[in-house]
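Hi all, posting the design record for the shared folder.

TITLE: backbone redesign
STEP: 1 of 1
STRUCTURE INPUT:
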């Protein structure tokens, strides 16, 4: 038989989705299922298939469950289920979303949490020493909120936010996330209601951190309880402080560029975790006054537990804190680009799964960007996340299961080459824009109060006789 007439083998998972397979191999998902201690039957939606479907649901512009069922029925992910002779798309006999929704509920939350930490660890391993700052992995911390629908279970768990007008309609989830300094991947996230402070969530986040890593935070995290948790979990910190709190430590006025050793003792106003040591914490307090022509000067007070002043110089620490802004950019990508500002699930467990699945989708994009940057000898942070997201999404949506192995490899290599060209623009001039948007005209007025009351009011209006 000639080489041209030989049948071509179907492409394998590593050939089809090499980055996804490297980030989340099937054996890792199976190991997380066993660790969860729950029995998961191998039905239509296996754990690996379910994990990918949750990621696809966030990557796709249509986030409905029906869009996922349509994607599965098209045969695009038949290669993810190699334990059956009949393809997955042919074993799906119904176009209903019931099987997929039940599969989402069966999948343990710990599987998605473990998968998120695994993807971050793999991306960091790809970077090697290039992913370190002076020998340390670095996490950038920042807080944010997510909107939830006012479902009864969500209202009971998270509560309703109140303002001067009374209770608001939306339920709000508070979260604190950490991102890798060099690649922007999500390292971890903690969430709870608005009754839980960001400082408490940051302490829980530090418990997930890798030992000997450095975490950077703004003034909201520059409090004793966060530094106490960092010492307890063997994590270094570089935190900005308010002028008042810094003055309480030094008892005097500091000069710009000054670097002094301090012993931070908790005051009567500081919150202290009783399960951790409350002994004074040794650290350095740095004060730098940054000036730019045409702008007001910025006074920067930094507290760090990195005591070696020769290795961790003031200049290096200021440069490191300057990169903390990337945490806010990453949260913008998650909430705006991936459309996660509003989580639409109706139960607490599903809201958390939706959050972790969205962060898994975010790390998948970061994984592709890291691979592309490595091949082009670039930094992943020089690539545009939004541009890379569009190209990864379009490639995955147009993937056909009948592609040969050689064609699949060419598609992936072309995708990585395209991502390497999606560089952020180099703007020669400094730009500043107000953090405000113009309100677009709407066809209907804003809904105030509950929707049930609005329906009842409309019914009463319809019962009134029409005046001729």
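Okay, here is what came back for every position:
SEQUENCE:
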């Amino acid at each position: 038989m000639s080489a041209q007439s030989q049948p071509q083998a179907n492409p394998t998972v590593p050939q089809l989705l090499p980055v996804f397979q490297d980030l989340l191999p099937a054996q890792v998902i199976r190991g997380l299922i066993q660790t969860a201690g729950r029995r998961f039957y191998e039905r239509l939606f296996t754990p690996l298939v379910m994990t990918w479907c949750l990621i696809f649901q966030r990557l796709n512009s249509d986030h409905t469950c029906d869009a996922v069922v349509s994607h599965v029925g098209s045969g695009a992910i038949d290669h993810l289920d190699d334990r059956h002779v009949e393809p997955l798309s042919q074993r799906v006999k119904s176009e209903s979303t019931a099987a997929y929704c039940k599969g989402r509920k069966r999948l343990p939350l710990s599987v998605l949490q473990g998968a998120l930490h695994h993807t971050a660890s793999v991306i960091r391993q790809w970077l090697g020493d290039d992913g370190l700052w002076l020998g340390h992995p670095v996490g950038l911390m920042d807080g944010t909120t997510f909107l939830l629908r006012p479902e009864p279970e969500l209202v009971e768990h998270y509560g309703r936010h109140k303002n001067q007008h009374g209770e608001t309609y939306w339920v709000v989830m508070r979260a604190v996330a950490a991102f890798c300094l060099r690649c922007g991947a999500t390292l971890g996230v903690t969430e709870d209601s608005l009754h839980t402070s960001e400082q408490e969530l940051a302490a829980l986040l530090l418990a997930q951190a890798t030992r000997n890593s450095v975490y950077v935070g703004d003034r909201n995290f520059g409090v004793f309880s966060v530094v106490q948790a960092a010492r307890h979990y063997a994590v270094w910190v570089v935190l900005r402080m308010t002028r008042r709190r810094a003055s309480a430590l030094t008892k005097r006025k500091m000069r710009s560029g000054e670097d002094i050793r301090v012993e931070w003792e908790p005051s009567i106003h500081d919150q202290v975790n009783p399960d951790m040591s409350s002994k004074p914490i040794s650290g350095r307090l740095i004060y730098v006054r940054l000036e730019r022509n045409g702008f007001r000067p910025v006074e920067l007070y930094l507290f760090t537990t990195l005591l070696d002043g020769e290795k961790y110089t003031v200049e290096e620490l200021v440069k490191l804190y300057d990169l903390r802004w990337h945490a806010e950019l990453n949260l913008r990508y998650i909430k705006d680009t991936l459309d996660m500002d509003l989580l639409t699930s109706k139960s607490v467990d599903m809201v958390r799964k939706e959050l972790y699945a969205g962060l898994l989708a975010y790390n998948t994009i970061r994984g592709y960007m890291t691979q592309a940057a490595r091949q082009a000898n670039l930094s992943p942070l020089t690539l545009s996340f939004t541009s890379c997201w569009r190209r990864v999404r379009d490639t995955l949506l147009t993937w056909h299961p009948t592609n040969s192995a050689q064609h699949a490899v060419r598609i992936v290599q072309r995708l990585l080459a395209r991502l390497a060209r999606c560089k952020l623009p180099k703007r020669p001039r400094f730009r500043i824009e107000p953090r405000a948007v113009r309100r677009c005209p709407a066809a209907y007025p804003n809904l105030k109060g509950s929707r049930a009351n609005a329906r009842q009011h409309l019914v009463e209006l319809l019962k009134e006789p029409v005046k001729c």
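COMMENT: The first strand starts at residue 138 and ends at 148.
Let me know if anyone wants the other runs.
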